[in-house]
Amino acid sequence: MTEIVNTNNYTPLSNDPTEASRKNLRSLLLTYATETKEPEIIRLAKHLRFASNYRPPELYGLPKLHKPGVPFRPIVSTMNSTTSELSRYLKKIIKPLTGKEQSFVKNSKTFVNEIRHYHVETDGILVSYDVKELFPSIPISDTLDTLYNLLNADTNLLSRTKLNPFHIIKPVSFCMQECNYFLFDNKFYKQSNGVPMGSPLSPILVEIFMESFVRQMFEEVDRQIAPRLLKTYVDDIFVIIKNGKEEQFVHFLNSIRPNQIVFTMEKEENKTLPFLDALIILTNQGHKTRVYRKPTRTDRYLDFSSHHPRSVMRGILSGMIDRAINLCNPEYLQPELNYIRKIFYKNNYPRSFIGRAFQYKPRNRGSAKPNTLHNPYLVIPYVAGFSEKIIRLGRQLGFRVFFKSSPNLRSILRKDKNIIVDTQSNVLAQESILGKKAKRWNIGSKNTWISSQVTRTQKPFLTMAAIPSLKKEDRY
């Protein structure tokens, strides 16, 4: 990770920009709140009033186990940053603008369905192209211009927000440019190009750029080297192209934005090519598909003895069954289902539990019953035996029950994300002295930090502890 932050794309900063960015963003949102009366902007501006609500974004790395040398993928955690809530709000506004290109595929299922009946000629080959380090490479200024044009052309924008295109572009730019910084190894850095992987806005902006890139590609490509079929999923491109033209096509792709957007190429091997979760196989009867698994797979899933709701385990198992049904041609389906039975049996799932999961009809994901969508809900930690009783009670009384994760070894031992001094929540401040009064506080996650909330105080036992909002008579 140190090698990554020492590249030209990252500039060291002399201090923490969080407070300055909070003030600047609040000033911007207050102006927009006055101009538009958008309720969400008003709420965000009010929330930005308190400096203690925020912490700087933090960089950490995820290893790419399937890549040679196991390089790290840089991720910027923006949780509780000044722009995290605003980014989620902007994402909801912008998301409907994406996915409208004919080449776009939503997931592996739609990809397989769209290519299933396509005839591959004898001189055609399967090739996939992938953008190298797309997130830090996209030109943010050009992407914002494209976004502005899409917003101007969107006739349904007013149904999602009271903001006009200018009101949307400015905060998007603020999130991706002015606030594109992070903390790593107790030092602050600013990202010079692209968007940070980890921000809620980044995937949407990447999609907007790539769809614009593909449109430009179709306008400029020479018909002699143009693919016969092209499908895109973010930075992955699948093509069926005339044999011998694949090298010319990748050179053309790399010439559109030279030294900025760089594509790598993978050709079919032994008449097969993986794309997303599917393996495309060329046969004498045409091309067929089955589930693809990376060579680095371990076949380890949530063990049946783990302290998790049975619904979670059923969901994992049924999800893999659904994937097999959606991606496999008939001759590959039964071997795939047998493989699923085998690996879940190795993860200590009872045969009866596995068998019941196979006795089903394919489900329509996300189709919750309309009469339960607006019911009150309860979020509690899962406790085996007790939680199931709460679910049954909820069904009788008309409320939904959701479970949150309990502490596990991973959450206790994981140290790749540092806890920043003065911003640690959920700790106990033993007899911290507030003026003349001694208080013992059990800290919750929505409290403010002692370092910014208390000015007239003796030194507490835990200086990084948080305190809840105090009544007026308890403040001094």
From TrEMBL:
Where in the numbering of this chain does the Reverse transcriptase domain appear?
43-306
Q: Where would one find the signal peptide in this protein?
A: none
Pfam families attached here? HTH_animal, RVT_1
Protein name per UniProt: Reverse transcriptase domain-containing protein
Q: Which organism is it from?
A: Trichuris suis
